[in-house]
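Researcher: Here's the sequence for the chain we discussed earlier.
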Amino acid sequence: MEFLLILIIVLLIGTGAIFVVRRLSRRGQELKQLCENGSAAVGTLTEVRAERRSRSEDDHFIRYTFKSFTGNEYSRELKVKESEYVNYTQGQAVDIIYLPNDPDINALKILVDQMREALQQSK
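Model: Thanks. This is the structure I predict for it:
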């Protein structure tokens, strides 16, 4: 019985790890697509907030919206580091890169630029 319980726990942990790796891998592929085929847009920060995680730590989030070339509006929320969070204010304009054929795939231009730099260094 104890062996079965350990086996179940190991399987659950393994399944969770696979899910995380796939999620990170998918976002990496999306960023690569944005580097290669992305279009630029100017978005607006619609929300900048900190949420209390513990007595001494906060999580920091921003949300931006932008319009694609078709005029449809898209939005994304990101968790950011505190060192980045202090640079953002609600209503601020931000540069966005998105896929014209799938605008749900988008990112801040600064992230895409970092990915482009990393891809150049790996060549």
